[in-house]
Amino acid sequence: LHVCLLHAYQKYILVSMLAGKPAEIPKAANDIVKNFLPSLAKEYKSLYEAMITKDFEQLKLSIDKHKDVFLKDKNYNLVEQLPLRFMKTRVLEFTQTYMTLSFADLAEKLGIKEELSLIHI
Question: What span, in angstroms and rounded, lies between the C-alpha atoms of 76 and 40?
Fold first, then answer.
């Protein structure tokens, strides 16, 4: 596969996550593309899986583990934005479920140790 296609796919995954959209390969794409792109972007798929499964610890672990790859690909600035996006999405989900949730309860559900950290989100 062409290197440009791989870089575009990597950015597509990251931008989709930051926009809160699924990062699925379009159905109209060639079968070769559908089968090989995900296997060539394993580090990016691990970020996506952590976001989908709502596992913040896994997201942080994946970012730390593959930091060198993201830096080499010049995508680390986008990757750095994912934890904040994750928290904002989770806050919105919890507020839709629990309209009158206190900051302390919300911080506990998100796994944040200090309420002050939550205020910045």
Answer: 17
